[in-house]
Amino acid sequence: MLELKNITKAYTVGDVVTKALDDVTLSFRENEFVAILGTSGSGKTTSLNIIGGLDRYDSGDLIINGKSTKMFKEREWDAYRNNSIGFIFQSYNLISHMSILANVEMGMTLSGVSAAEKHKRAIEALEKVGLKEHIGKKPNQLSGGQMQRVAIARALANNPDILLCDEPTGALDTATSVQIMDLIKEIAGDKLVIMVTHNPELAEKYADRIVKFSDGKVISDSNPYSTSESKKEFSLKKTSMSFLTALKLSANNIKTKLGRAFLTSFASSIGIIGIALILSLSVGFQMQIDKFEADMLQQMPVLITQQSMNLDAEAMIQMNEEQEKFESYPDDEKIFLYDSMQETMMHTNKFTDEYLEYVKNMDKSYCKGVSYSRLVNMNMLRQDGSNYVPVTAGNLNFAPYPLSLGKDTNALMNEHYDVLWGNMPENSTDIILIIDSKNRINKSVMTELGYDTEALTEINFADIVGTQFKVIMNDDYYVKTEMGIYSFNTDYEKMYNSPQSLTLNICGIIRPKEESPMAMMTDGGGLSYNDTLAQAVIDNAKNSEIVKAQLASDTNVMSTEPMDEETKQQTIAYLGGNEIPFAIQLYPQDFETKDKMLEYLDKFNENLTDEDRILYTDTASMISGMSDGIMDGITIVLIAFAGTNLIVSLIMIAIITYTSVLERTKEIGILKALGARKKDITRVFNAETFILGIASGLLGILIAKALTFPINEIIYSLTELKDVAQLKISHSVILIVISTILTMLGGFIPARMASKRNAVDALRSE
Predict the structure, then answer these.
(1) How far apart are CA 500 and CA 505, in angstroms?
(2) Please, what is the average pLDDT of the chain?
(3) Which stretch of DSSP H or E encloses residue 469?
(4) Which of 60, 124, 310, 436 qualifies as a cystine partner to 10, CB 3.0-4.6 A?
(5) DSSP single-letter state for residue 44
(6) pLDDT tens readout for residues 89-144
(7) CB-based burial of residue 133 (10 Å sphere; 0-12 exposed, 13-18 middle, 19+ buried)?
(8) CA angle 547-549-550, nearest 5°?
């Protein structure tokens, strides 16, 4: 059995042969002897220049071509085996899952020979041993003699200095043995060949020098050499196996066990399948939520009111601090007083002309519509035959509709409503009747318009469009009494026919579009007007007698009740004396541009004190944030459960890789004999787990993608939601990467164990 070992102390060549060969350079069993084939004198034999033995013999150094091996590191021994030694084993030791061409190329692969060069040299070596026509075959397709020829070709292909042959004909019949020995004899013409054999006749016939051993000691040497010291220095070319080569080796091995590899990949992919399905459902439901939000929540405008709740982080911290001052469920027999307004952190927005102009000048790409809510009361009358009847604005659901910021002020309404009869408003006195998706409207609206809703259950569109009533200005609607206070005028006919009154005309009937899931107006339908109508009423009211009187008085000019400043301002606004809106509704273009709109609003608050800041309420973001948080929470929990399968997969891969190490022990020994380093062996098994990781990831993604189709069908049958399960490409790539990383982690320890296997022990394994 051949075995290279360290040698440390200098001796003569004869001492080496006598004391060291059995234990250091070569180890032999009882009654074995060495036949050295090759040139003598100062030829290849002297290139060994052996001048040392073992420490346990109190020996010195082994010098190889002038370089001491005393300080050789493990990687240098690997390089020496690869560069200088060619092994021909008794049992061939070919890697079964590789072609004979790949077997021959392996030593050169570790030497870093280019692909073209090693292919050329491998074919030449196989041609030299007479196997060129068999280069595509696997070792199990060859006879014993042919396999030994492959082993010889492998030993020759890397052009080593020495060929070590361990019973090269021990497993062959006589005729084949003669052929192999003739080939070895031919090779010995320009190589040093050292052969171990139990066949004295074979040695006598072919050997140039025969060294006989008995009980581990040299008993004779047919051609001893004199000691000579070489000053020749040489350098070792480090061996290296690229990851691509390791991948090819592992792929070939996996091909021989496709069934097991598939089952392994499938088992490892279960966790990936679970996570992929969870992510696809999460993404799908989030897309449905986003679509719902885009369709519905975008109808919820960003609301800016004169009274707003401060919900920023600092305010919330302050609110919590206020709450913590009080103990929950105290035993004290006391009542503690607190300010509810302070607890709610209410903030007063001071609308100024500057701020209103700032909002008006907002980029139209951020905001597609704006609506102003004003406290002004519309004083309205309608004619019923010869009678004139007051109209209650509240019963009409009378509110302004949002105006688009572009040239077409009705664009936003046209986007979400269909005109069923008539047309959209064209001037400030045109108003529209809004009905719901079922063509219904609240009875109170039609009652206020003068229809007998007790007798009627339906009304034709044509009977409604064209209906008129009037808005009465303050100086006609309010009269000053003898007591100096103001009261309502009861002469309805005079008010109705006043030249100052504005005639309102129902110009059209509209209904929310089918694809618009939420109407922007009040539920139940009603009448809606252009904000220019409110501005016209306010412009007239600001100069009315009642407004002037109220501005000058701290008591209510109609009831004489005292008022604080806030109540006074509200009363003036109700009478039309204040054009500052109570609230502003801003309709974003979409969810993406809404953030830009909010940034624009926030920019106004820069460098302002807390008191002067203008706060807004973004209800849509609050709702979407809650839904996003819930969806994220559910996704994380489900992924955590599914992730346990990945841990199980990691353990399973470790077991499978360890099994592969056991199965490929002999291959490990062959690779080490050819000069593979520990990291090269590790790389081979890491490459195998890399392939399994990618395979399991891809398989998991493919199965998960296939499962989305029946899942979508089931969800659609239950909820009518289409294509909910959506597996994103980015998620697929990430999961494949995770699968690969976890699989390689699972196989790392077995791979390290493989790299530490002793080459001799590995070669002895079956």
Answers:
(1) 16
(2) 78
(3) strand 468-471
(4) 60
(5) G
(6) 878 888 888 888 888 888 787 777 788 888 888 888 888 888 888 888 888 898 88
(7) exposed
(8) 65
Is residue 546 a contact partner of residue 474, using CB atoms and an 8 Å limit?
yes
CA 264 from chain centre, in angstroms, equals 24
Count of beta carbons in the 10 Å neighbourhood of residue 739: 29
Residue that the structure tokens 């302004």 belong to: 400
Q: What is the token pair recorded at 59?
A: 């020996």
Q: What is the DSSP letter of 38?
A: S
Amino acid letter at 12? T
Report the DSSP pairing between strands 526-529 and 430-434.
antiparallel
Q: What is the 3-state secondary structure (H, E, C) of 406-430?
A: CCCCCHHHHHHEEEEEECCCCCCCE
Q: Which residues contact 217 (CB under 8 A, 6 or more apart)?
A: 18, 22
In this model, does residue 461 exceed pLDDT 80?
A: yes
Which range in 5-19, 218-232, 354-368, 481-495 is most confidently predicted, on average pLDDT? 481-495
Q: Which helix (H) or strand (E) holds 209?
A: strand 209-214
> Judging by beta carbons within 10 Å of its beta carbon (0-12, 13-18, 19+), is residue 189 exposed, middle or buried?
exposed
Residue by residue, DSSP assigns 48-115 as: S---EE-GGGT-EE-EETTEESTT--HHHHHHHHHHHEEEE-TT----TTS-HHHHHHHHHHHHT--H
Whole-number Å distance between alpha carbons of 200 and 670: 28
CA gap 63, 44 in Å, rounded: 15
pLDDT of residue 423 exceeding 90, the answer is: yes
Complete DSSP assignment for 649-674 = HHHHHHHHHHHHHHHTHHHHHHHHHT
Residue with tokens 């569109």: 461
**Distances, alpha carbon 613 to alpha carbons 304, 308, 309, 350, in Å:** 12, 11, 12, 8
Where do the DSSP E strands lie in 502-620?
502-512, 526-529, 583-588
The beta strands (E) that lie in 300-393 are given as 302-305, 307-309, 346-348, 367-373, 380-384, 387-391
**Residues in CB range of 98: below 8 A, 6 or more apart:** 106, 138, 139, 249, 252
Whole-prediction pTM value? 0.52
E strand residue ranges, 338-463: 346-348, 367-373, 380-384, 387-391, 399-400, 403-404, 417-422, 430-434
Nearest to 454 by CA among 446, 462, 466: 446
* 87, pLDDT greater than 60: yes
Q: Residue 61 phi/psi, 5° resolution?
A: -95, 155
Residue among 327, 316, 323 at smallest CA distance from 340: 323
- Answer with the residue of higher pLDDT: 563 or 13: 563
Strand pairing class (209-214; 217-221): antiparallel
Contact 759, 666 (CB under 8 A): no
Q: Which residues of 670-698 are buried (b: 16+ CB within 10 A; e: fewer)?
A: bbbbbbbbbbbbbbbbbbbbbbbbbbbbb
Sign of CA pseudo-dihedral 144, 763, 671, 194: negative
Residue 244, beta-bridge partner list:
none
For strands 209-214 and 33-37, give the pairing.
antiparallel
Is residue 48's pLDDT more than 80?
A: no
Average pLDDT for 561-585: 90
